[in-house]
Design goal:
The complex is a heterodimer of chains A (about 300) and B (about 280). Chain A is α/β, with parallel strands linked by helices and about 300 residues long. Chain A folds into three domains: about 150 residues, P-loop containing nucleotide triphosphate hydrolases (Rossmann fold); about 60 residues; about 55 residues, no CATH class. Helix content of chain A is about 35%, strand content about 25%. Chain A has eleven helices and 14 strands. A six-stranded mixed beta sheet of chain A has the order 6-7-8-3-9-10, with helices on both faces. A four-stranded antiparallel beta sheet of chain A has the order 2-1-4-5, with helices on one face. In chain A, strands 12-13-11-14 form a four-stranded antiparallel beta sheet, with no helix packed on it. In chain A, strand 4 and strand 5 form a beta hairpin. In chain A, helix 3 crosses helix 4 and helix 8 crosses helix 11. Chain A is globular. Chain A starts with a strand and ends with a helix. Chain B has one domain. Helix content of chain B is about 80%, strand content about 0%. With about 280 residues, chain B is an all-alpha fold. Chain B is built from 13 helices and no strands. The chains are: A alpha/beta (about 300), B mainly alpha (about 280). At the A-B interface, helix 2 and helix 3 of A face helix 2 and helix 6 of B. Bound molecules: adenosine-5'-triphosphate (ATP) and magnesium ion. The site of magnesium ion (MG) has 4 residues of chain A, from helix 1. Adenosine-5'-triphosphate (ATP) binds next to strand 2 and helix 1 of chain A.
């Protein structure tokens, strides 16, 4: 099944005066795909999102959204994009309902939809209170509700789970997965790796403006060559029968490459008869740290 | 005409304008100043009666000249208070980026805000002058209705135009500021300059009767300050050329009403263009 390309970023560079924030970023995002945009503070994530929105222009390279090169005059494209900026606190003197109605009106969304989404996001009780009195998480929920109000085909979320309690984050990702199932493309820029892991199709890791790695979680595991840890009490007795894997056994665990995971598991189950073992795959956090450490290694 | 009204609530300019009005009505400073404005306007008009115990009302030219002296302070100040955080505030709360990601042009954003803020200022001047005018018509038997209504309408119209110039000055400063406090600080300075310093200097020059102060130069000096154009409009409109005092010198500038209104409109158009170009160059 080929899905249409929603965002196509080709070799994008961005400089602010003499500071180079992004150096050659490329990726494609298709309808129904979710992508995590990861990187340290100041890596250039928000700049990339702003460029996809057409708020700032790339210094080099090209960005296409729905096949159009976006600039301010392309309103039909903007109508079909939902955006949650980082650190948005909204209009203090308006109520939650008024804020949402305002943004709904600007996108031609009707009142019923506003009321419905307020209920869905658990803001119905607080809808007539001034936003000034909202907690950080409530504002964040309001922001997310704002982003998906018009049911856009592309959603850009800049740190959506900041300040959210665990259940609220879970709700947000559930919602993201629902939208994905409807064919929506989503880019999530975040520092909360454990939350985003398992909720995205692929990740793009940027560091100091460069793409350090990109691909699905499995591809990243393979590419980073981080070891899988296989742990079992029975391994201790059998470790002389581990054939070629003996050297990988230390600290009570087998440390094997992701690529030979299947071979090793076949060996210990079929030849050694060990079925009682635990498998610790590298997490997104491990992968992220691996690439960031590598970057720091390069720079001394 | 009907079709314009039918589509109006859905036009982005109108949506932004109504949000600004809602926001502005909840701004305590603005309500406070509007009340002060109303109180001052009433007290200038009826203070004479309070002193003497009987209904003593000033003549229309005298009244308008005192009212315009008050308005020239209050209207720009209110306009600044309404507009100073229009952009710097939205930037701080993260909504400026959001608005720009919406299917809106920068022109529509400025036009929407300007419309909303101008309506608020129209409301303020209507309260400030309208009630005074109404009371005058009810209580004062000597005021010809036609002329009074005409003079006060003129007053309200020019006040709105004056307010618009200061609202736009507020936008320009707000667009260029990175902090609210800086924006209001700078704007108060601008206000002080236009409303007090410039006028003091201008009046001093007028009184000093210097040889190089040709009428043309005076007209140019008036044209360069919207508050002086405003004063001139209201003094000319009421025929205050014969009044005593330095203010009347402005009224003798010889500029016709339509030229004066034209000058205010030039200010508004010029500042709109400036605000838009500052907005377009703004770093996000
Ligand atoms: N308008 C600007 N002028 C100059 N430098 C800028 C500007 N905007 C961003 N930068 C710089 O570009 C770099 C990337 O910024 P960006 O906001 O994209 O980072 P980020 O990855 O979103 O970081 P964070 O995780 O902290 O949100 C930073 O070093 C930042 O200082
Ligand atoms: Mg950021």
């Amino acid at each position: 099944m080929t899905r249409s390309v929603v965002v196509k970023v080709t070799d994008v560079h961005k400089s602010y005066q003499d500071f180079v924030a992004l150096k050659g970023v490329s990726f494609e995002l298709h309808a129904g795909q979710t992508m995590a945009l990861l990187g340290h503070n100041g890596a250039g994530k928000s700049s990339l999102i702003k460029m996809i929105l057409g708020l700032i222009q790339p210094s080099l390279g090209e960005i296409q959204v729905y096949g159009n090169t976006l600039n301010a005059s392309q309103q039909h494209v903007q109508l079909d994009i939902g955006y949650l900026p980082e650190n948005v606190s909204f209009y203090e003197k308006l109520s939650g309902y008024e804020v949402l109605s305002y943004f709904a009106a600007l996108k031609g969304v009707n009142r019923e939809k506003v009321l419905q989404i307020l209920v869905e996001f658990g803001l119905a009780d607080a809808q007539h209170r001034l936003v000034k009195t909202y907690s950080k998480g409530m504002r964040q929920r309001l922001g997310f509700a704002q982003a998906i109000l018009s049911e856009p085909r592309l959603i850009l979320l800049d740190e959506p789970t900041v300040g959210l309690d665990p259940l609220a984050s879970e709700f947000m990702y559930r919602k993201i997965n629902e939208l994905k199932a409807k064919g929506c493309a989503v880019i999530i820029c975040t520092h909360e790796l454990s939350l985003v892991e398992g909720n995205v199709d692929f990740a793009l890791i940027v560091g100091q403006g460069k793409v350090l790695a990109q691909g699905s979680l499995n591809e990243l595991k393979q590419a980073s060559n981080l070891k899988i840890k296989i742990k079992s009490a029975a391994l201790e007795q059998h470790h002389q029968h581990l054939n070629g894997f003996q050297s990988c056994y230390f600290q009570g665990c087998l440390h094997v490459d992701y690529g030979i995971k299947a071979d090793v598991i076949r060996h210990i189950t079929q030849h050694l008869g060990i079925y009682d073992f635990s498998l610790a795959e590298p997490s997104l956090n491990d992968i992220y740290q691996y690439y960031i450490n590598q970057l720091e290694g390069q720079h001394g | 005409m009907a079709s314009i009204f039918a589509t109006m609530p859905y036009s982005p300019v109108w949506i932004i304008a109504s949000k600004e009005i809602k926001d502005g009505l909840r701004n305590r400073w603005v309500s406070f100043i509007t009340l002060i404005f109303m109180a001052l306007s009433l007290s200038v008009t009826f203070a004479g009666s309070a002193v003497s115990g009987a209904l003593v009302l000033p003549e229309l030219p005298v009244l308008i000249s005192s009212l315009s002296t008050i308005a020239v302070f209050i209207i720009p100040l209110t306009a600044i208070l309404i507009s100073y955080d229009s952009f710097v505030g939205e930037e701080e709360s993260g909504t400026l980026l959001l608005l720009l990601s919406y299917p809106l042009t920068r022109k529509q954003i400025i036009a929407g805000k300007l419309l909303g803020h101008s309506i608020m200022m129209a409301f303020t001047s209507l309260l400030g002058f309208g009630i005074t005018a109404l009371l005058l018509l009810i209580l004062g038997k000597d005021y010809p209705v036609g002329i009074t209504v005409c003079v006060f309408s003129q007053f309200i119209l020019s006040s709105i135009l004056l307010a618009m110039t200061f609202i736009l000055i507020g936008y320009v400063v707000s667009l260029r500021s990175t902090e609210k406090a800086r924006a209001i600080g700078l704007l108060l300075f601008v206000w002080f300059l236009f409303v007090l310093i410039y006028d003091l200097v201008l009046l001093a020059l007028l009184v000093a009767d210097l040889s190089f102060m040709t009428p043309e130069l005076i007209n140019v000096l008036i044209a360069f300050n919207p508050t002086d154009i405003y004063r001139a409009i209201n003094l000319v409109a009421v025929g205050a050329e014969d009044l005593q005092g330095t203010l009347s010198l402005i009224a003798q500038s010889g500029l016709g009403l339509s030229v004066l209104y034209g000058l205010l409109i030039v200010w508004i158009i010029g500042l709109s263009i400036l605000a838009l170009s500052v907005f377009k160059c703004k770093k996000l």
